[in-house]
Amino acid sequence: RLQGALRRGDWYKTKEILLKGVDWILGEIKASGLRGRGGAGFPTGLKPKYLVVNADEGEPGTCKDREIMRHDPHKLVEGCLVAGRAMGARAAYIYIRGEFYNEASNLQVAIREAYEAGLLGRDACGSGYAFDVFVVRGAGAYICGEETALIESIEGKQGKPRLKPPFPADVGVFGCPTTVANVETVAVAPTICRRGGAWFAGFGRERNSGTKLFNISGHVNNPCTVEEEMSVPLKELIEKHAGGVRGGWNNLLAVIPGGSSTPLLPKSVCETVLMDFDSLVQAQSGLGTAAVIVMDKSTDVVKAIARLIEFYKHESCGQCTPCR
């Protein structure tokens, strides 16, 4: 609810942030070193009049965005306003996975409260800036997590990726320039503006700065979603927040570090690898969505990977030749 969000610091000095203008907001986000949190890791400040928020979180083991929408939806709504101001947008569309019924309801309540409090609408936060936020529910297709398929779905069409170019930055929703961003990326924007880009960049290491939401699931004692700084050692992340590997660290077989689409890491690599973009690329894997799936020695790795392959086979739209 709004009162709880206000007590947590959401919507604090948002009017001041909006009045400082586009250049200042973009400058702070660039200074923070924030990279997109949806998996690809693009530098956010370099992205180009609609804002589309990708909340179609359908990958096995990934549920970080769900936690934001479930427990703190106002953080996302405020983030839409700040990010929208930065790109000169007049509206944001939050495209949410169809199965996230309660989360979609939470967002609708938060948006209604924001309108009633004058935080959204024709004079958002009293800044003179007009901005609207809409929620669009998907139908559960994993392919709609791809940005152009998501845009097609918002427009009421079949959720299949478009040929590129043109890119969404030129021809996006309803033929208008569009920026597609991840929930976590958008939600952190107001905090960066309030505390400063240098503060955010103080976490992690160069090119891998800031904080990150990590999902930890599988054979651990305490599966959880936790916010930690980038470049935290994988072993520390598992033992500190997830209660360690079931049966002890020596019972570890392998870890999928960034969601089901990233290559798994054997125990020998997990001993020292850091949880950030560059370190995991060097380890021949990737940070992806930062959904850590832990496998102990009872796991049949071939069966586990075959099950993931079956998911992607089922969710393929069949449009491109390799999938057919």
TrEMBL record:
Pfam families: Complex1_51K (PF01512), NADH_4Fe-4S (PF10589), SLBB_2 (PF22461). Residues 29-188 form the NADH-ubiquinone oxidoreductase 51kDa subunit FMN-binding domain. Residues 304-324 form the NADH-ubiquinone oxidoreductase 51kDa subunit iron-sulphur binding domain. InterPro entries: ComplexI_51kDa_subunit, NADH-UbQ_OxRdtase_51kDa_CS, Nuo51_FMN-bd, Nuo51_FMN-bd_sf, Nuop51_4Fe4S-bd, Nuop51_4Fe4S-bd_sf, SLBB_dom. This is NDUV1 dehydrogenase. The lineage of its organism: Eukaryota, Metazoa, Chordata, Craniata, Vertebrata. The keyword Metal-binding applies. Signal peptide: none annotated. One of its GO terms (cellular component) is mitochondrion. Belongs to the complex I 51 kDa subunit family. The keyword Iron-sulfur applies. Its cofactor is FMN; [4Fe-4S] cluster. Residues 212-294 form the SLBB domain. It comes from the Eukaryota. It comes from Oceanodroma tethys (Wedge-rumped storm-petrel). The gene is Ndufv1. GO terms for molecular function: 4 iron, 4 sulfur cluster binding; FMN binding; metal ion binding; NADH dehydrogenase (ubiquinone) activity. NCBIfam families: PRK13596.1 (NF010120). Keywords: 4Fe-4S, Flavoprotein, FMN, Iron, Iron-sulfur, Metal-binding. GO terms for biological process: mitochondrial electron transport, NADH to ubiquinone.
